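Q: I have 560 residues here and want to know how they pack in 3D. Can you give me a structure?
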Amino acid sequence: MGAGFLLAGAQHVRLASVLRADRLRIAEANDQLTHRDTIPAQRGTILDHNGSVLARTEEAYHVTITPKLLTDSRAFWVRASEVLGIPADQGIALARSGRGGLDFPEKIDRERRKRLLELCRTFRVDGIGFVPTGERTYPAGPSAATVIGFLKDGVPASGLEKGLNETLRGEDGVQVGFIDRNGSVIPWLRDEGLSREVQHGADVVLTLDRDLQAFASERLAEVCEYHGAWQGVAIVLESHTGNVRALATWPTFDPTDPLPALQRAQKGETASPEINPAVSVLLEPGSTFKSFTVALGLESGALTPNSSISCKGSIPVGSHVIHCALHGSPGHGAVDPARCIEVSCNVAAATWGMAIGKERWYDFLKRSGLLEKPDVGLPGALSGQFNWNEYDKRIQIATLGFGQSITVTPLQLASLFTAFANDGVAVHPRLIEKVGSSRVQVRPGVPLFRAETARTVLQMMKAVVQGEHGTGRALRIEGVEIAGKSGTAQKRDPKTGRMSNSLYVSSFVGYVSADSPEYTVLVMVDSPKKNGYYGAAVAGPVFRAIAEYLLKSGMVRGQG
């Protein structure tokens, strides 16, 4: 009995399928009753690590109107005018015009669409349709614009919108089959062979903290505008995971209206909003790199904590003369590694850079990943540059000792500095925390130095802020010890190719806090034109403001 019932049921299903296919073929042959309907995929939402929305698609529709199919019922138009925002008489005149199809100029939201659909069904009105537009909104505004990106005419143009487009966009669905009087495909008369379910885009969760991102963006903008800079970057990394908590850049733009910024960039007035300078601009690290010179020297045995040289303000290297960043003094005198970092001595860094030798330097650069492209999902990422075939190796290695003869992306430089906060292990930057339901794993770090070496250099960097003669002593925060390193790198004049006396990159990198370096913070300001150019004076205040925010907000354990 049960088997017979199951057999009859299966036969009934097969018969229904055959009848449905026959009806669809007949309808298709006569070009009647069948309809092909595209179901647009909804673009995925981008969120910060706390679930705050950074980008999402608001449901919106264009209204299509076919006047010759409309009713001229006043009762209908009196109520429809409340939804469409046009006078009832205008709607009646439109219906009586008998014109072909046209688009209603104003977009409507989901609620207004629902009300209009109910009106059409109540009054049995045809001639009104809806085309989804998917309005993209960016609640974080300009503060995260160069990270999130924007859409240009519906096409991803920059940022993660472009870099993660395959993940975010999804795949449109298709329904083919018989339609009812309202134009909807009847579910049981759908052609399953030609139809395809919609696959909405996956949501993406970032490691960013939206509030910290906004704060860092505001402080960076203030400094860049005050100093007349070309561009700037402020990066906050979790030292032990590489999670990017802030990736602020300047200039920025309104992601819902990027055209003004694009036009300014085309005129050469500002940097382009379509690139993120944290991954797409190469800058010399300058004196911040002296920390690695000391670390590599200690690690390789080329120097000890007690090594000392006499700085008289300059040193000849072949046919070149390297000058010290004197900061108002006639020369630094006796300089050991700790003092080299504290007062930022070029002569000591160049001397020890040459003592380390090119083979050790080359090995370090290859192992460190400093010259690799940042792999965080942002498009247009660049690899760092170093001339392996430089004919004058001696001057190259001497200047490498204080952060010249190499250009890197700010994000890769920031990630390299996590080594001093992480017992010698540099962690990879991580901007994407989750895609859909899949968590993006933290990549294993790169061991660069022994823990003892890293801790020793971190203590030396503390003197930059806490020391009597430290270049960053103006950045002290009451009750908390800070470690860091300033940098002021000369840039090459793009017209002459020579080192410029007016173009600089001002940098400051540091840890919050020195005793428990949970966060690594790097600030780089490119080409400040007024009110100073030294790294501690230009980039330092942004670092200090971010450090205070981290401490007061409770993001640093035991603080707040």
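Q: Anything worth noting?
A: The longest helix spans residues 2-29. The chain has three domains: 34-57+134-204, 60-86+94-131, 210-253+275-434+445-552.
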